[in-house]
Amino acid sequence: MKGLKGKAAIVTGGSRGIGKATVERLLEEGVKVLFCGRNEKTGLATLAEFKQKYGDAVFFIACDMEAKETPAMLVSKARELFGELDFLVNNAFPFTAKALDATYEDWQHAFMAGPAAYARMIAEFVKQREKKEGAIVCISSISGHIAQPMRWTYNAAKGAVKQLIRCAAMDLAPAIRVNCISPAWVWTDEVAKATPDGTRASVPQAWDEYHLLQKLQEPSQIAATVAFLLSDDAAVVTGHDLYADSGYLAMGPEGLGKTANFAGSV
Ligand SMILES: NC(=O)c1ccc[n+]([C@@H]2O[C@H](COP(=O)([O-])OP(=O)(O)OC[C@H]3O[C@@H](n4cnc5c(N)ncnc54)[C@H](OP(=O)(O)O)[C@@H]3O)[C@@H](O)[C@H]2O)c1
Fold first, then answer.
1. pLDDT per residue as tens digits for the range 88-97
2. Is residue 154 annotated as a catalytic residue, yes or no?
3. Mean pLDDT, residues 80-85
4. Ligand 1 centroid to 257 CA: how many Å?
5. Mutual orientation of helices 17-28 and 219-230 as an angle, nearest 10°?
6. What is the pLDDT of residues 25-40, one digit of tens each?
7. Helix axis angle, 152-172 relative to 115-128, nearest 10°?
8. How far is the CA of 142 from the centre of ligand 1 (A)?
9. Cβ 7 vs Cβ 31: under 8 Å
10. Do 180 and 172 contact (CB within 8 A), yes or no?
11. Among residues 154, 210, 243, 248, which one is catalytic?
């Protein structure tokens, strides 16, 4: 992809899942990356794996995106390591799924570690850089578009991401492009937790069929769309929510039509 090689990026939550695949895709494209995660052991294991494959272009810091000091610290660390910073990928986000039972603390966590952390990272990215041009991608979700049972906190927080990127895209134009991506069901630890025995083989067929493409998504597929939105190939894309969802949001309540016989008439 155009305009990635030699650039520098921050990826929040890069030690596992979609974030990890994004770090790897960017390293493959020749981007230097600083990523973070809360668990130091997991982060350092991922760092060692990448260093072996890609050399010294990758760095890890253990931190919590909800903490007040994290955004300023992460961006300043990236500037120290890379000199300049070109890209930001806001990926870490709490999967807090509460509804009527949500406490004050649940709401605080869902928003402060979610869309507010995304916004605070964007603000630091803008404040601390000297370079004008840049690109930002935030990971949203199909959950920001639809109702799902007992998920007020997660779905409301994901819905906020879309409005955040629109406002940021307006205020940061024309130098910095800001977009988000809405994946559907991606095979990561969070989805594995919901399977009968945590294995890919135990994924119910029904989950594949939530998607027009009839397959659970892979983290590397979402990472490819992140790389595209950061690249110069997406030079005219900003304020956009890319449905990287294998057709999930295009489908209606009739699903793939297995239970609907209506064929229309002439
Ligand atoms: N998986 C899906 O089906 C799916 C679908 C749509 C959208 N998404 C979105 O995609 C993004 C990534 O999801 P995923 O499934 O890849 O998650 P994941 O496998 O649970 O990985 C999350 C990553 O973020 C880090 N992280 C989480 N909370 C953090 C915090 N407060 N501060 C710093 N790091 C944090 C985790 O490391 P530590 O645990 O060590 O902190 C880990 O590296 C999220 O925004 C999620 O909402 C996922």
1. 999 999 999 9
2. yes
3. 96
4. 32
5. 50
6. 999 999 999 999 999 9
7. 20
8. 15
9. yes
10. no
11. 154
pTM above 0.85, yes or no: yes
181 contacts 244 by C-beta, under 8 angstroms: yes
163 contacts 122 by C-beta, under 8 angstroms:
no
| Structure token pair of residue 17 | 């899942």
**Ligand 1 midpoint to CA 259 (Å):** 35
Ligand 1, closest atom to CA 113? Answer: 31
Contacts 24+ apart (CB under 8 A), 69-73: 70/36, 70/117, 71/117, 71/120, 71/121, 71/123, 71/124, 72/124, 72/128
Identify the residue whose tokens are 């990448």.
50
Listed in sequence order, the residues at least 6 apart from 137 whose beta carbon sits closer than 8 Å to its beta carbon are 87, 88, 89, 90, 179, 180, 181, 226, 229, 230
Q: Which residues line ligand 1 (CB under 6 A)?
A: 13-19, 36-39, 42, 64-66, 91-93, 113, 139, 141, 183, 185-186, 188-191
Rounded to the nearest angstrom, the distance between the alpha carbon of 191 and the centre of ligand 1 is 11
Measured distance CA(79)–CA(84) in Å, rounded: 5
Q: What is the mean pLDDT of the chain?
A: 96
